[in-house]
Structure formats: structure tokens, C-alpha cells
Amino acid sequence: MYDYFIGSVTRITPEYIVLEQGQIGWQLFTPNPYAFQKEQPIQVFVHLSVREDAQTLFGFTSLHQRDLFRKLIQVSGIGPKGALAILATGEPSHVIQAIELEDEAFLVQFPGVGKKTARQMILDLKGKLGSLMEQFTLPSADDELPLFGVNPFAHELEEALLALAALGYSDRELAKVQPKLEEAELATTDAYMKEALKLLLKLK
Questions:
Q1: Where are the domains of the chain?
Q2: pLDDT digit string (tens) for 89-131?
Q3: H-type helices in the chain, by residue range?
Q4: Superfamily of the domain at 63-135
Q5: pTM > 0.85: yes or no
Q6: What are phi and psi of 85, to 5 degrees?
Q7: What CA–CA distance (Å, rounded) separates 60 from 130?
């Protein structure tokens, strides 16, 4: 029904953004709301979920992120919220690599994914990701997947620092708390921001 919206972000919350388009504010649940910036015209790819009790719009920064979301919600045991959590803490390429390489140990590190769900993801999606496979080059089976390396959530940390800078914190202040944030390895941008604010308050 909908493919994408073009509008300006007027509100950012830990779970969703509000995109204003033609004097209508669309509530879009996204993997990482802090990946968006306020008041800048952007294109957001959307997915409409219709249930008996609700109609929910999900927003994504790219087509392949949305495509992977649609694949994930087809897996038994993974609903829209679970799929968002996976995309919030992992790059699409890393998730695809883990599925194709049958790396259950990697997949169970995502929020809400146990061994049974990881196995189901592999059974349902391996070899069935279609055009998504064209986006990435898979490593050999012996190669290490990069997401859970020195800091598996470096992307979320970076976005939290950018958001804090937008709130008025100086580079000097952020540089003081960044090492402790890197050690924390928190799972979401929101968690990094909350921890950073605690640390910044201690500097006052």
C-alpha cells in the first residue's frame, strides 16, 4: 500500500519517530529512531502491519533494511518488535551472513533470540533472501563476523554521541565520557544516551 514517505521528522522517541507530511504526522516505529535527524526532509521506506486490533507503520532508512525486516517477521517466533530489535543491534549484512553461515552462536546474541529461534531463522531464511544477497559479499565460513568484535554496538554509540552533540554537549565533554561508553557495550542508542547523560552529570 505504501512504499515510502518524504517529510520532516518532528519528534524522536526511543521507539518511534513522527514524520510530518502534508500537515499529517505519521508515527513510524523504527529499529533506531536516533538514526534520524529533526526537521530535515528525508525519505523513509515504510511497512504497514495490519492486525485486528491495530494498524502500525514501521519506518526504515533503506530498502534492504526494510526487506530484511519483512523476511524476519515471516519466521515463526519473531514478530515486528523482535525484528526491530534485531535490526537495531545488528547491521543487515551481519544478520544475513550469520543466517547463510548457520552461525547460531552469533544469532542468539540478539535480544529475544534463543537457540530455537536462531535455528528457525536459519531453516526459514537460508538461501531464501533473494535480492538481499546481492547487496553483500559473504565471508568464508572460517571468517569472523564483525558485529560482536571489540564493540558490537559502535554504530549505536556513534549515533548517541551525535545526538548528544546536537543537544549542545561539547566535543571535549563527549571525549571524556566516550572511553567509558565504549567499555559498556550497550545494545541501543537510547541506552548509550542515558548512560552518557549520567556520566556527563558527574562532570559538572
A1: 4-60, 63-135, 154-203
A2: 777 888 888 898 898 988 988 888 899 999 999 999 988 887 7
A3: 63-72, 80-89, 92-100, 104-107, 115-125, 154-166, 171-184, 189-203
A4: 5' to 3' exonuclease, C-terminal subdomain (1.10.150.20)
A5: no
A6: -65, -40
A7: 19
**CATH pick for 154-203 out of 1.10.8, 1.20.1250, 3.30.110, 1.10.287:** 1.10.8
Per the CB < 8 A criterion, the answer to whether 108 and 114 are in contact is yes
Whether residue 149 contacts residue 118, with contact meaning beta carbons closer than 8 Å, is answered with: no
Could you tell me the three cell numbers for 98?
550469520
Among the listed residues 89, 93, 85, the one whose alpha carbon sits nearest the alpha carbon of residue 153: 89
CATH number belonging to domain 4-60: 2.40.50.140
What is the full DSSP assignment across 106-119? HHTTSTT--HHHHH
Cell numbers representing residue 186 in the block:
550497550
The C-alpha cell that represents 178 in the structure block: 566516550
Residue with the three cell numbers 522517541: 13
CA 41 – CA 22 distance, rounded (Å): 12
Cell numbers found for residue 76: 515463526
Minimal CA–CA distance to 121: which of 143, 149, 101, 141?
101
